[in-house]
Fold this protein.
Amino acid sequence: MTLDLLDRRLLYELDLNARQPLSVLTKKIHVSRNVLIYRLNRLRESGIIKNSFAEINSIALGYKTFRIFIKIGNCSPDERKRLDAFLMSQRNLTWFSRVLGEWDIDVLFTSKDIEEFETFRNSLFLSFNSMIKDSHISLLSRIYCYHRDYLLGKERKEVIRKVLGPSKCVPDSKDEEILYLLTEDGAMSALEISRRTSLSVNTVIKRIHTLENENVILAYRVFIDTNKLGYQYFKLHIFLRDYSQKDIIALRHFLESKSYVVYTDHYIGGADFEIELHLKTEMEYTDFVDSLIERFGRIIEDHRLIKFYEELLFRYLPLRVE
């Protein structure tokens, strides 16, 4: 599917706020309601837009997210399918992707209970140690989230940064009910949330505003299939040396200025900076790395690349136990 500027503007606006009413979108994009609905349906039917969701600060809810990189040794297709089925069956798994590079699989396990992760880890390695050649575990500490300014084909002039990290807010069980619903459908109406939570509409609206203001709800976005959009999903891990706080600030500002940088991640036990990028070609990636090394080579000790090529599972919170 070939996208024109109208499609890209629509995707950009939905990435800014997937809860925007159609009436607001029509004014921003300067099209009729019928044209907007047609374009939106076409993007959904083509699979470019998978769904909408609320980007949730899981750390503020008391969750810990463990990442496991896995390198697979020689194994049969049936053994690989058995591993995939095991991973997909885990209600606490919030990310599962196949990657190219140093590792073959990247998974995230999110839980409030470390023992729950330990049980999962033991089960994984007891069941599949014969095919797991190597692995590495780290703990998520912070993510800086940016909007997809590259959709408009322009440099990023204004940095809109959301941080997945500590928050002073202490959401209660009703807040979590609302958050779970918004991770399933970021555009779900307050009326529908009211019906499902047995709260009044006004209470729902008030709670949502509080969660937004307290950095628990970071954004309302659409899940975009980057491959169908014509982009590749790269992740660069850089390891630093002999750096100062001034260097860190300069590096972050440099990364934030690039419209194709969508996340910078920080893990305890991971690289110093993990940079997620949406780019069309490998040449664009190498150009970015060259510019990074030219500017910050003095403090970069090493850098490694993985490339996401198949995202099998993505959600911000574990599945609820019914």
The longest helix spans residues 114-128.
